[in-house]
Amino acid sequence: MTETKGKFSNWWEKQTGAPPKTWHKILITVFLLVFLFVFYVTLDANKYKAFVHVVDGKSVIGVNPTSEALDFGDLAKGTSAVRRVDIKNGTAIPMWVSVIKTGDLGELVSVDKKSFVLKSGDEEKVEFSIYIPASASIDSIYKGRVYVFKVPTFGLIK
Amino acid sequence: MKTIGNILIYFAIVGGLVFGLPKFLSWALDTPYPMAAITSGSMWPVLKKGDLVLVEGVKKDDLAVGDIIVFENKERKNFTIHRIVKLDDENITTKGDANFNEDTSISYKEVIGRAVKLGSHQFRIPYLGLVTVYASEIR
């Protein structure tokens, strides 16, 4: 009777000098599943470039957000602007939505809902507000990025 | 036996850091409040929300316009970290860099200390004050 080994077992044995044990296989499978899950969530996230131009004169609110950018336009010190983004769950399972902002602009922008659960087919508006403080530099363009991650809840978060 | 010894050493180091470091800083910086967390964006961009700053005890004569000081805010019943914009023999007036208005003037006895500088830069440890920020938001 001949024993057949998978490619993985052969590779493992070549590397370590011993065949993989069951717990090795379980651990590697779990690691791969977690990696694929994180990869999917990152790939599926809505990503927006965000920017604002600080001006000395009159504020000019930027164009409405596209699917790629949150444009706050030209804003003077002491003024504010609001941008809204629609988040829709087009899947059959509930999603936990988490909004993360980065960069210089991320420090100036506040979000009304940082995280929430979105049921299947539901839609939610997320509001981004910016206020230009007195210490902002005139003629500077503050940039940042906003990520909207959607993580399947699997019924764990209500 | 060796493992138990390692665990004991580990706990001694962690305990020493948690309990000893604030006491050491308090002694070295000559203030009962040697550390402060930034809980608002009023000093942006020099100090950002979530930063941890070191505070040093300071004498009245050593304070100058431009210094960032920590003082007891009696209106809000907490400590505030803002920059000195005016000072005379009796009072100090401060303002947050990101704010448009000056704060109500305070007396010298309300000053807790001055934020430590590293050369010409303000010393800050990003994110280390986030625990305090979350705690203040929960309150």
From TrEMBL, chain A:
Protein's name according to its UniProt entry: Uncharacterized protein
Keyword field: Membrane, Transmembrane, Transmembrane helix
Segments crossing the lipid bilayer: 22-43
Gene3D superfamilies attached to this UniProt entry: Immunoglobulins (2.60.40.10)
Organism of this sequence: Candidatus Harrisonbacteria bacterium CG10_big_fil_rev_8_21_14_0_10_40_38
Lineage: Bacteria, Candidatus Harrisoniibacteriota
From TrEMBL, chain B:
Keyword Protease: yes
Keyword terms of this UniProt record: Hydrolase, Membrane, Protease, Transmembrane, Transmembrane helix
Domain Peptidase S24/S26A/S26B/S26C intervals: 33-114
Keyword RNA-binding: no
Gene3D superfamilies attached to this UniProt entry: Umud Fragment, subunit A
EC number(s) on file: 3.4.21.89
Predominant localisation class: membrane
Transmembrane stretches, start-end: 7-29
Example GO BP: signal peptide processing
PANTHER family on file: SIGNAL PEPTIDASE COMPLEX CATALYTIC SUBUNIT SEC11
Protein name listed in UniProt: Signal peptidase I
